[in-house]
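Task: fold both queries, return tokens.
Query 1:
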Amino acid sequence: MSSIRKDFYIELLKYANKKNEFILNELFEDLNLNQEEKNLFCERLIHSKLLFDSTSKSDIFMISIKGRFKLLEHEELTEARISSKQAKYIAISAIIISALLAICSILLQVFHRNKP
């Protein structure tokens, strides 16, 4: 069973975005990475330079432009999900209010017709 956290990738991007430069040991300690996460980070993320650009010093890293855009896309998607949930609740509330008003209108008409 995998012991990698669900948002491991996003946590790394947020950390790298917050810090201008960081050392690997500092990253590992600050994020409390387990051994499997450390291995994944070293194997895939550093060597491919997909997310982090190494500066002229080999032990100092920083987030790449592509990494910043990935983080921005994630944050925009998260905000869009929140907005869509709010819009859904507002729409459901409007439907319920409309239904209640229609029922009240019908009941009032029936009540006035039956009034002597």
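Query 1 returned. Query 2:
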Amino acid sequence: MRTGYDKEWYLTKLKKLKLSEKQTDRLRAVALKRCASNEYRREDGELRRLMIRLADAEFLNQVSAIPSREKLRVEGHKKRMLQTVLNGRKDLRAQLKTKQGRET
């Protein structure tokens, strides 16, 4: 079975395509579901890198709002997703900082 490798390949190719809003929303939903999951999958890294291109401030807020419990992988999934997206997107980093500045 090579499904993880295949998904990884397709996610890499999706980064180069122009996607419709419906397709983008669907991929964001998949990414949120993977962040909330307690299992490891090899394609998660490629999905995080795809989200650099597709994420918006609402997506980051949704990732942050995912509940997690102690000794589960969910917190790590969330942390890696946020870190990857924010490292790749200066505009979202600035948006998040200004939003946090208004809240405090």
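Both queries returned. Flag for query 2: The chain has one domain: 3-103.
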